Amino acid sequence: xxxxxxxxxxxxxxxxxxxxxxxxxxxxxxxxxxxxxxxxxxxxxxxxxxxxxxxxxxxxxxxxxxxxxxxxxxxxxxxxxxxxxxxxxxxxxxxxxxxxxxxxxxxxxxxxxxxxxxxxxxxxxxxxxxxxxxxxxxxxxxxxxxxxxxxxxxxxxxxxxxxxxxxxxxxxxxxxxxxxxxxxxxxxxxxxxxxxxxxx
Amino acid sequence: xxxxxxxxxxxxxxxxxxxxxxxxxxxxxxxxxxxxxxxxxxxxxxxxxxxxxxxxxxxxxxxxxxxxxxxxxxxxxxxxxxxxxxxxxxxxxxxxxxxxxxxxxxxxxxxxxxxxxxxxxxxxxxxxxxxxxxxxxxxxxxxxxxxxxxxxxxxxxxxxxx
Lengths: 200, 162
Fold this sequence. Notes:
B: Arc Repressor Mutant, subunit A; 7 helices
């Protein structure tokens, strides 16, 4: 046999299945993760999502009506994603910690572990993303901005007019990501930010 | 709990796909199972980013491949086995070996090529779609596929000549 037989490859691959015990273990781990995640979300939003039985019934009717309206309106994505909430707050120029906090350069204080860093020219502007393990390495001004919700992630976004620069910070799995953009429109900054969040 | 039901459905419907890709890359069941669990735990955390059924499939494929890379790096650090990106590796497969196993041939391709071959021949994605999933240009996908075919042909000819 010297030719790659596509059908044989398919037949061989078809025989491979995830073991049942792995599926069961994963299901249990997912349930635990879901509970942990819900708890974290409740803590993050500062309110308990648990509701009484009565309220729960009404919530069900209202939600059903709302979903019905969405279906009638022809909106197909409701099952999967809630809308983004974007809030960009204008900020004064930050104090650059130890001179290292500049656009296009390593973000964070000296000695901070950078997990990942990427930079590129996008749409005529410059977009830069870094990640740090230390929350303290993120400028506190950004944490003080109003919370946005992008692609299911809580992010804090600021715009420094005198630098024509956008900044955003968000946390995932104990890693803090910092995005910055220079010479870019708000629309393009947000487009790149969403793409970055999506790709993590 | 809608989310749990939906993620559970994803586990049932796409579990085999994720496992195959993980096994193809990791070459052993133990690491493939670690990747499998990691992918579905991430799905729970990132569920609200999923926009559609097709997006879910693509997301699972991309995240599985990323988790494999991460797991491979960890294995590298653990065992300090010298591995070079894009170079051929000795098989460490724990699966039952069969003569003329095409699965094994693909599994023994350099890492760069395995995913492209599997997505094209098994998952039936087009070159363009593979490019989107793996964030590669179409020409890169074509080149990888062409090189992979050459490597597979050489390997199969060598095996056939034995």
